[in-house]
Amino acid sequence: MVEGNGTRSPHRVVIVGGGFGGLYAAKGLGRAPVEVTLVDKRNFHLFQPLLYQVATGTLSPADISSPLRGILNRFKNIQVLMDEVIDLDPAAQTIILPGREIPYDSLIVATGVSHHYFGNDHWQPTAPGLKTVEDALEMRRRIFMAFEAAEKEPDPEKRRAWLTFVIVGGGPTGVELAGAIAELAFNTLKHDFRNIDTAETQILLLEGLDRILPPYLPELSAKAAAALQRLGITVQTQSMVTDIANDIVTYKRNGQMEAIAAKTILWAAGVKASAMGQVLANRTHASLDRSGRVIVEPDLSIAHHPNIFVIGDLAHFAHQGDKPLPGVAPVAVQEGEYVARLIKKRLQGESLPPFTYVDAGSLAVIGQNAAVVDLGFIRLTGAIAWLAWVFVHIYYLIEFDNKLIVMLQWGWNYFTRNRGARLITGESSLSQDVQNTCDNYQAPAGMGSPVKV
Amino acid sequence: MVEGNGTRSPHRVVIVGGGFGGLYAAKGLGRAPVEVTLVDKRNFHLFQPLLYQVATGTLSPADISSPLRGILNRFKNIQVLMDEVIDLDPAAQTIILPGREIPYDSLIVATGVSHHYFGNDHWQPTAPGLKTVEDALEMRRRIFMAFEAAEKEPDPEKRRAWLTFVIVGGGPTGVELAGAIAELAFNTLKHDFRNIDTAETQILLLEGLDRILPPYLPELSAKAAAALQRLGITVQTQSMVTDIANDIVTYKRNGQMEAIAAKTILWAAGVKASAMGQVLANRTHASLDRSGRVIVEPDLSIAHHPNIFVIGDLAHFAHQGDKPLPGVAPVAVQEGEYVARLIKKRLQGESLPPFTYVDAGSLAVIGQNAAVVDLGFIRLTGAIAWLAWVFVHIYYLIEFDNKLIVMLQWGWNYFTRNRGARLITGESSLSQDVQNTCDNYQAPAGMGSPVKV
Questions:
Q1: Catalytic entry in A138, A176, A207, A335
Q2: Among candidate residues A87, A11, A21, A94, the one with its CA nearest the CA of residue A309
Q3: A87-100: per-residue pLDDT in tens?
């Protein structure tokens, strides 16, 4: 942009989203001859791969979150805004937020995905997913509340329903959740209750395809399934959930209808693009795939708009191999770094070859001692895989104090089988049943008027 | 209780409340020839003295909380129930909960206090207090949101109101909060913003009496006030809040009416007894003081009911010195331990002398380097007082992993001036203004229908 007096104002980069993609793009542009504005609805970067550990009481949200300002404040050319983008004007080259517009020369959209209930959004309140801190805290509340409720429940059938957990989705999130709940039920909480035996807990993992961890090699899927079963989890593949209502999960397995009574149902099954995907489709020529993700060019820009990029989980990049790149953290990181390099190159009048992803491998952990790791040139299972998983996750955590705290929590957890964050918090910490009973309490005859405590 | 076949069923102790009083009473009865049931609305014990550190982003809730079951599970004679007591039947010797009654031979009520708004309960949504984890998280949200909102605010007057914090109440909680917010504004967040200079933050501490920390010696109050002023806090004594409305705090100071525009108002001013106090007054001959606390006998029981005890913040114990014992943690701990010893003695047909509190001293911290400590035989201020404060708080933290985590967070915070938990979380993480604007957004003419992101 050349202004009236002939000076060129600096190249403005706007980044929407402070997850792995947006954050690494920003870091790549720190100290570059650009002005960067990073916009996010939250004030922190969240390490999503460890959210299931917040949900099962091992870690606190702050242990896996880093304030965006704290990470970026050393780059004087980067400004952070806590706000929400609601529209886009590609002709004027501005993004639109409530009460303001921000102009850009390059735009990087990295707003990720949320849950997908396959057209059954009404299941969401009953079967929460795991994408945000609030999701994880709600899951935590329900998991620990289930044991508390079972402890107080005189009816054996209801008690069994409280001690039954159904996890929908056999990808890494579902697998890791199942393993962590098994550790809780069969280890951590073993001595905590007097009326129930947590060893009677039933954990059911439902996967629609023919094996869990479908992106992995079949033999690794099989090893993972065996590890889960050794942990006491029931794994059922080729099982598609057809209904969730009245504390009963109904699913179709190999053509047969089955049902199970479960008070706690956790959703780890599908992703749906964030709404910025639709904004881009409406305002530009961008096309979306079936999940709403934006189809991108080999340099991660969108068709006919070389200065608008989409990276991370929201991007559908199908120029490498026979499948689009998966929605995992290392892909987002590399895409963010690539776009930053590309923008800098363009400022010098140059360009870069198309983006290529260097696959560092896949990891999923099962409980405290086992994992499956596929690094391409080597595959690991068991304890050594678990160690690799631990180190990779510590490596990717932003902020040194997070690395320290998480290592400490994991060390503590490993040696004492004690989880440090087993809190039930939130507005209605007692179950709705109890709350209703309190509200409707009638004192026994002869005791005078009841007093609400 | 002697049952039909001549065997004596064990003495049943019911403890209501798992704070300092109830928890230490339970621990005192572990392995005694009694059956203990501890009832609490939450599943964890909360270390309230450090809640202000959760509110200002240094610690996470789990760092200062310990699951009750985890602490007590090694005592096979103690059962924990997560539930709420709604009434009492002293004739039948039962407590009443939703859907159940629990019989007792000895009852210990330790349900504490909550906030007191001096008849202005409608101030509560605007001026949150600090008694529970949810309180602290809400305070945290508002404090950090204020800086984010100021960063985006073009109007200088509104920006100043966002950067103005009013803390009502000059006791230890208010003093510690004020010091922590000053550290945030003038240190931690110094480099995080581009449109605002956090050094312009104004922090006002309002106290109704003639000096802050009224229970302390006057010279310690004076030193604390001087330390706060050095940190950049404005301390105004003899200031009683008369109204909080439309982001303006109106107060009467030395007879003059004054007002200040402030978007963030934090309440640390008064306590009101929990509702169990009223239940006891209704169902027994117990009397209440002006704050609703239960007046107790020299052995902490209530008049005419030697087997019903009230301990902790809910108890008004006026048999030592010329004032009732303060609502602080060491008092609750000693009272809980005393009642446990007394119950055990009675089982042997013996008794104990009346309760006497051994005053270990008072401590309040101001910022990162100063504190006031009064141990009776010695008074400390400055850095050495701060060290004493640190060690005492670590000592009283339950669970070794909490001690370790908190020492780590404090060490990290001290050396890096970085606070590890500066998250804005909660259902509506954006301010209500922004939310309303999103909902009412109209696309500029010519752009087609707006898309809600």
A1: A176
A2: A21
A3: 999 999 999 999 89
**Digit-coded pLDDT (tens) for B296-328:** 999 999 999 999 999 999 999 999 988 899 888
One domain for residues A210 and A315? no
Residue A288 touches chain B, beta carbons under 8 Å: no
Q: Which residue of B has its CA nearest to A41?
A: B430
Interhelix angle B20-29/B329-347, nearest 10 degrees: 30
Verify that A111 and A128 share a domain, yes or no.
no
Asked if residue A210 and residue A93 are part of one domain, the reply reads no
Cβ <8 Å between A133 and B423: yes
Tens-place pLDDT, residues A16-60 = 999 999 999 999 999 899 999 999 999 999 988 889 999 999 888
Say yes or no for a CB contact (<8 Å) between B65 and A429: no
Lowest mean pLDDT of A149-158, A203-212, A430-439, B331-340, name the range.
Answer: A430-439
- Quote the domain boundaries for residue A283: 11-41+83-115+272-347
Please give the residue of chain B at the shortest CA–CA distance from A418. Answer: B70
CB contact under 8 A, A453 and B276: yes
B264 and B125, same domain (yes or no): yes
**Distance of alpha carbon A428 from alpha carbon A434, whole angstroms:** 10
Interchain contact A405–B (C-beta under 8 A): yes
Residues A301, A215, single domain; the answer is: no
Domain boundary among A234, A269, A304: A269
Cβ of residue B425 closer than 8 Å to a chain A Cβ:
yes
Indicate whether A314 belongs to any domain.
yes
Closest CA to A100 of B342, B281, B154: B154
**Dihedral class, residue B136 (left if φ above 0, else alpha if ψ from -120 to 50, else beta):** alpha
Domain final residue pick, A293, A317, A347:
A347
Chosen for mutation from B51, B60, B187, B195 (greatest number of chain A CBs closer than 10 Å) is B60
The ipTM, to two decimals, is 0.77
Q: How far, in Å, CA of A229 to CA of A259, rounded? A: 20
Known catalytic membership, residue A148: no
Q: At A97, which CATH number?
A: 3.50.50.60
